[in-house]
Amino acid sequence: TYIKDRTANQLSNLRCRKLQDFRWYKDTFMTKVLTRKDANQPYLKEKFITGLPTLFAEKIKNKYREKHKGVVPYETLTYGDIVSTITKTGLEICNDTKMSKQIKKLDLSKDHKKLFKIIDSQNPKVIIFQPLHQKFKP
């Protein structure tokens, strides 16, 4: 019971202050939670998400709410699902930040071709532009 109480106390105080510390947070949380019999209880999964930085945790919850009609289904989520969603969302934010920094560096009036190359390399979709001198024919 002493170990269980100590683990519960450690889990309740565990926080991930910065996303760069996520690997440490995940490893520490999993080490502590998987020693418990109630490891798969919804409140522990919720604690795992709420231990993340506040705005990021809200973003993760909102992703689940969008998929599941306004409810975060902690009962059916696995820790693997949660970690996967966190990693994917973190990468999306990182890529968005990099893209916006690159766009700010460009003078859009002069470097629109560079901008389109950056966008195309980040999101490889086929983009077709008609020359400006071509007239639109209905």
Protein traits:
single chain, 6 helices, mainly alpha, 62% helix, 138 residues
Strand content of the residues, in percent? Answer: under 5%
Tell me, briefly, the overall form: elongated
Residues in helices, as a percent range = 55-70%
The class by helix and strand makeup works out as mainly alpha
Listing every helix as H and every strand as E from the N terminus to the C terminus, the arrangement reads HHHHHH
- How far do the termini sit from each other? 78 Å
Number of helices: 6
Tell me about the largest β-sheet: none
Mean pLDDT: 84
Low-confidence parts = none
Radius of gyration based on Cα positions: 22 Å
What is the domain tally?
A: 1
Strand segment tally: 0
How is this fold's topology laid out?
Layout: H1 2-13, H2 22-33, H3 42-50, H4 54-67, H5 79-105, H6 112-122
Helix pairs in contact: 5-6
Describe the structure.
This protein is mainly α and 138 residues long. It has one domain. The protein has six helices and no strands. Helix 5 packs antiparallel against helix 6. It is elongated. The termini are far apart.
Question: Gist?
Answer:
By secondary structure, this protein is mainly alpha-helical. It contains 6 helices and no strands.
